[in-house]
Amino acid sequence: MRRLTRGVAAVAITAAAVAAYAQERPESILPPGFGEPAQAPAPSARATASTPRTTPTGTIAAPAPAATGLVQPLPLDLPAPVASATPSPTPTVDPAVLAQYEMPLSARRSLDRVGPAGEREGALAADAFGEADGRYLEGLMRRVAAPLPSRWLSILLRRTLVAQLDTPAQVHGADFAAERAWLLLRMGEAVGARAVVQSVDNAGYTPKLYQVAMNAALATGDPAELCPIADAGFAATRERGWTLAQAMCAGLAGEPARAKALVTAARKRNVATGIDLQLAQKVVGAGPGGGQAVTIEWAGVDALTAWRFGLAAATGVTIPADMFATVGPQARYWYALAPGIPMAERLTSAEAAAGQGVLSAAALVDLYGALDAANDTPAPVAASINDLRTAYIGGDMDTRLTALRALWGTTPAYPRLVLTARAAARLPVRTGIADAPQLVTSMLTAGLDRSAARWRAAVDEGSDAWAMIALADPDSGGRLSYRQLSSYAGSGNAALKQRLFFAGLAGLGRLTQEDTERAAAALDVKIGAENSWTRAIDRAASDGQPGTVVLLAAIGMQTPQWRGVPPAMLYRIVSALRAVGLEGEARMIAAEALARV
Q1: Quick one: pLDDT at residue 294?
Q2: Within 13 Å of residue 192, how many CA atoms lie on the same side as its CB?
Q3: pLDDT (0 to 100) of residue 9
Q4: Read out DSSP for 430-486?
Q5: Which residue from 38, 47, 194, 450 has the highest number of Cβ atoms inside 10 Å of its Cβ?
Q6: Strand blocks (E) in 36-76
Q7: Helices (H), 50-171
Q8: pLDDT tens across 44-55, in order?
Q9: HEC states along 187-236?
Q10: Whole-Å CA distances, 46 to 84, 206, 514, 545, 588
Q11: How far apart are the first and last CA of the chain?
């Protein structure tokens, strides 16, 4: 019990402690006031036991949803999901009899364990959060500023959130799934968010999950996903979006007369106007017998919302480029995953998504391969496809390197390094290659650590490539000396890189205690400093809670760029991940720091 109370208390001060711990105050990418508790609403007779959230100062309510039109704005202004309420049972039918008829007991899924992916799929174990209090974990999720600066931490956070997780104490299973899906949406992981939502049987939905489910369906450009829950969603939340969802689902089900009647009624009640109503009508018209053509005009539209994004993506409506300037980068990642959008239009967004970790290197190469097989590939894309092919199967090393340089350009963009990871790994090792840092970085974006380590003897000691290999090599049997650490003189921001290099080595245990203390003093990296965040992540590590460690690591990266991550914080993150058995991820994060500063 003491551990649970301690966990709930820690979340109230974690966010402030992280800011105080940073040598430069991390810049939040969330709007002002995000994550602040709203005033407690009047007690509801329908509130469940999961509604209150206690802190050392008393009981507070979950942040209230923002005032919206049809659905919540996209994506940084997605509202904090509201507390759950239990809909009143239908009085005319025995709920138990009805539930048994719709889904027998043998087919129902328990809310004690929720999630789409198991350990065989690369997700974390079901007990990843150990005995942590669910209210504490939900508080951490709400305070994560997504997207994160680290591709590898983003991948690890996704693997945590989509896992088949045991529902922690003090929270409702469906509510906890909603919190996980909501964070995935903010990360740009629309497909993962939808998978988590779908891990809960429709009969187990809460108002919070209905709210997140609508946003997940829209983020994936799939309004049909709303149809099994449209009626219940409207009954549970009374949100206007569900009114038009009922109309769209009627149209998609081949009931055009009913769909048109519902749209007419919605127009008369002023449920929606302008482009929001037009997009719903376009979805209705796409159903059997829809019989209506709707032209979408973006003139006068001042912002992109989840509603507009989802319905436009579903019906093949081109979203003007300037609309993406009104939202966060997550929308680009959603766009990359939307199947209703032509591949060539998605390519730029797909590269951005790969740089963030939403898409893998293999998935990005597959997209280029699909475009190669298409008949209408734009000329610039076709040129990149030819370069990528040559990088893989060119007749000699010089030819392949020339193709890689063409793909990278003068200053390689990180997504292009992701694209070329496996092509770089196929090159034979050769000394004197000026592109060695790019080759090593490229391989490590896909986790090809042993392929990168082959280049250890071919690069100069003290170079960027050497330092990244020293951090990433899984077979490094010994420790580096203080002299070797001091020899590192990275390109660009050399002083910051050396401090990050030290933090990574110390966190991975690749320096002696004496050299660690000496380097910490010489480089002024206060790895021994303590506050509530350091104590929380150290405690989670000592308690064997990898999921909690991952959430706290994400809390520690409240900055849009790597240069905003303090070296001392990187040390704590790498050390904690290593302590809970995530050493491979810790190595990749430490090496990524040098590649992206």
Answers
A1: 87
A2: 29
A3: 42
A4: -TT-TTHHHHHHHHHHTT-HHHHHTTGGGS-TTSHHHHHHHHH-TT--S---HHHHH
A5: 194
A6: 53-55, 58-60
A7: 95-102, 134-142, 151-161
A8: 333 333 333 333
A9: HCCHHHHHHHHCCCCHHHCCHHHHHHHHHHHHHCCCHHHHHHHHHHHHHH
A10: 9, 12, 60, 34, 47
A11: 43
Q: How confident is the model at residue 108 (pLDDT cuts 50, 70, 90)?
A: confident
Cα 233 to Cα 241: distance, rounded to the nearest angstrom: 9
Q: What is the pLDDT of residue 98?
A: 54
User: What does each C-alpha distance from 461 to 445, 458, 470, 551 come to in angstroms?
Assistant: 22, 9, 10, 35
From the CB of residue 406, how many other CB atoms can be counted at a distance below 10 Å?
Answer: 15
Phi, psi of 306 (to 5 degrees): -60, -40
Phi and psi based region of residue 269 (left: phi greater than 0; alpha: psi -120 to 50; beta: remaining): alpha
Q: Pairing relation of β-strands 113-114 and 58-60?
A: unpaired
Mean pLDDT, all residues of the chain:
86
> How confident is the model over 191-195, as a mean pLDDT?
98
CB-based contact 548:130 (threshold 8 Å): yes
Evaluate whether 557 touches 150 at the Cβ level (below 8 Å): yes
Amino acid (one-letter) located at 383: A
Element (H, E) at 113: strand 113-114
Q: Which residues pair with 143 in a beta bridge?
A: none
The larger pLDDT score, comparing residue 424 to residue 85, is at: 424
Q: With contact defined as beta carbons under 8 Å apart, do 162 and 581 qualify?
A: no
Contact partners, residue 58, CB within 8 Å, separation at least 6: none
> Which of 385, 384, 383, 381 lies closest to 369, judged by CA?
385
The helix-helix angle for 2-21 and 546-555 (nearest 10°) equals 30
Q: How far apart are CA 416 and CA 479, in angstroms?
A: 32
Phi first, then psi, for residue 152 (nearest 5°) are -75, -35
DSSP assignment of 518-557, as one string?
HHHHHHT--TT---HHHHHHHHHHHTT-HHHHHHHHHHTT
Which are the contacts of 246, defined by CB distance < 8 A and separation ≥ 6? 230, 231, 234, 262
Write phi, then psi, for 393 (nearest 5 degrees): -125, 20
Using an 8 Å Cβ cutoff, are 296 and 319 in contact?
no
Is 60 exceeded by the pLDDT of residue 423?
yes
Rounded CA gap, 8 and 373, in Å?
A: 54
Q: Is the pLDDT of residue 541 over 90?
A: yes
55-80 per-position pLDDT tens digit: 333 322 333 333 344 554 443 344 44
Q: Measured between alpha carbons, how far is 186 from 95 in angstroms, rounded to an integer?
A: 36
pLDDT computed for residue 26 by the predictor: 32
pLDDT at 14 over 60: no
The closest of 23, 25, 49, 10 to 143, measured between CA atoms, is 10
Contact between 471 and 484 (Cβ < 8 Å): no
pTM for this entry: 0.85
Residue 88, number of CB atoms within 10 A of its CB? 10
Stretch 547-576: mean pLDDT, rounded? 96
Token pair, residue 123, equals 């997700």
Q: Does the pLDDT of residue 245 top 80, yes or no? A: yes
